[in-house]
Amino acid sequence: MAPSFSYRPAPLNTIRPGLPNSRHFPERPIDTEITPAFSTMTVDKANVLLIGCGGIGTIGALNLEVGGKAAVTAVLRSNYEMAQEKGFHIRSCDHGLVEGFRPSSILKSVPDVEKECLKPFNYIVCTTKNIPDVPPALAELIRPAVTPGHSVIVLAQNGLNIEKPLISAFPDNIVLSGVSFCGSHEVESGEILHEDYDEIFIGPFHNPNVEWSAQEAAAKHFVDIYGAGGKTKAHFTADVGFSRWRKLLYNACLNPICALTDLDTGRIQLCEAGANSLVRPAMEEIRSAAAACGFDLPAELVDFMLTLDPIQMYNPPSMQVDLRKGRFCEFENIVGEPLREGLKHGVPMPTLTVIYNMLRCVQWRMKEKKGLVEIPPHKDFTNTK
Amino acid sequence: MAPSFSYRPAPLNTIRPGLPNSRHFPERPIDTEITPAFSTMTVDKANVLLIGCGGIGTIGALNLEVGGKAAVTAVLRSNYEMAQEKGFHIRSCDHGLVEGFRPSSILKSVPDVEKECLKPFNYIVCTTKNIPDVPPALAELIRPAVTPGHSVIVLAQNGLNIEKPLISAFPDNIVLSGVSFCGSHEVESGEILHEDYDEIFIGPFHNPNVEWSAQEAAAKHFVDIYGAGGKTKAHFTADVGFSRWRKLLYNACLNPICALTDLDTGRIQLCEAGANSLVRPAMEEIRSAAAACGFDLPAELVDFMLTLDPIQMYNPPSMQVDLRKGRFCEFENIVGEPLREGLKHGVPMPTLTVIYNMLRCVQWRMKEKKGLVEIPPHKDFTNTK
């Protein structure tokens, strides 16, 4: 099925006034030379499987489809029927108003490539949440779709050490890191509100079993097909660690603090106790932990990240949305791993220690609500029965 | 109006099995010699004004009335009509089932003793929350009812330094401290659920303008009238600071951690991250701060306080109830003051620093909801309008 949808482009000036042109300032120098890799794919469209078509995944699918260099098979769960019937309704700062968007193909579950005799996937793009403390593990989820030694796995997910279980499960496959600040969420089933434009940094996680040149070529090719539509900026980066630590300033600090206090990124800037007594100290702890791990995050990034979302957007970051919706929270890779890395190097991280343990409590509560934790029954202590 | 209500006593053994006889173990030696003070009052009933008739206040009024040595005038707000019509319905671990309870007199607002030519109050018992960051201040609220140099003000409220504004507003009045662990809340208007029995420690805050012997006599007299019904244990303590710091182990630690994670005191014991990674470190910080201020809280108090509420009671402490009900949270005196005292003495308090700042954020959110904080309007950033 070819993708078909009505597309009303955004006004030319989609860059918000007062914001730097790159969301990734100050980023390391960008390698702009894109050498086409996987030359057979440039003739045929790349065969892309996309897991998770929520706010971020749908914008990813749209970017890949509008570029014309990829055909996306999306695996949907709760919104499958809706997407079948009428497609996605998207209001996007990058794409304008898009109605009835459907990827080339949609599925209800991860396909089994071998059993179903499908054409192997060139890329398997994972945009789902990464919640290692709640099964199933991502590697097991995607296993039936992965062709060993062939499919490139793209982790458009946050946090540290997320590649480790994937490389361990698929030792001969390339695993790429995708880091963007794309602010987009599904306000209701099929309704996508994309307010913070997409700019993505892509590079290989180092898989010691695969030639580096192949990993680099795969990353550059994915940059090419992802950015081909011209609606988003896709960059190659050889320094995945830097871009991941850099994003943790936002994600390990602003994100959970907004979630735990239920103040969005606008209100947390307006509330002195939030911005100055919680977010800044947490960000300085991430800077120290990053430095101990060999990544020098410039001091001015703290202010940059704190004010990245304009106040009047009143943007609830992902963890806040998850808690409000009674969903599990993705915090082990985003807060737990950087905390463990920092502590391992002797960095004091008192603010993030408390935040991490509060997230564990909140997750425990969610697990209890969903029946994953059993507790003894309530007793009456009033002596009146 | 004489108090009238049906009273079905609790079974004889109201002490829960497995719990120590005193909720205040290990407490300092109790001064059991009660010398009657204010001898005129032992003939007439003490004229008591009680401010705040919620969960704690209603049990206080009941204790005073059943002892027969006090006539209580209660100031009610939201539950005034209900109390007028049918009185309080109380299920109590100390008193059993009590139906249609009304104090001797009920009022809608704090009376003006001088203007209304009322008999001066011997005691003004304050059981309202103490929220210095949200006006009106308690001293201003009770001012019309206070007869200078006569009325004894009893602060049955938590935290540190709460007496300072009162002594400053009424320099010639005695101010008493009342510390109890009475676990009682109003589940709906007029419905009191009293699950954690009342045992109160009463002693004078030191007012340098009043003779110590008079302060001591007032405290001992109040102990006598409060405990006269035999349903509650009331003790005199000369060491108000110790009993207040001691209770902070529960109130500055368990209480806000339960509120912020929305796990009650049962669940927080079951959740390892709650009990061991948050509550215990916070309690050790309070112990260190108390020690720096001259109060030696024994190490075993940490376990005692953590397990004070039986798990299967699943008791939501006061701050958790307030947040759930969308009310302001009483945290400046309970968390802010001990934190400031500790930091002033150079005690590191990283856990409580984060907890305190989170509470400030949550209070800011509540203030915004109630219109006490104004924020700039929301803007649409999707470029689709």
UniProtKB/TrEMBL annotation, chains A, B:
GO molecular function per UniProt: 2-dehydropantoate 2-reductase activity
InterPro entries membership: 6-PGluconate_DH-like_C_sf, 6PGD_dom2, ApbA, KPA_reductase, KPR-Related, KPR_N, NAD(P)-bd_dom_sf
Record-level GO BP terms: pantothenate biosynthetic process
A GO cellular-component term linked to this record: cytoplasm
Alphabetical list of Pfam families matching this protein: ApbA, ApbA_C
Annotated ranges, domain Ketopantoate reductase C-terminal: 243-361
Domain Ketopantoate reductase N-terminal: 48-206
SUPFAM superfamilies in UniProt: 6-phosphogluconate dehydrogenase C-terminal domain-like (SSF48179), NAD(P)-binding Rossmann-fold domains (SSF51735)
Origin superkingdom: Eukaryota
Keyword tags: NADP, Oxidoreductase
Renumbered residue ranges of the record's region Disordered: 1-24
Similarity comment: family membership: Belongs to the ketopantoate reductase family.
Entry protein name: 6-phosphogluconate dehydrogenase C-terminal domain-like protein
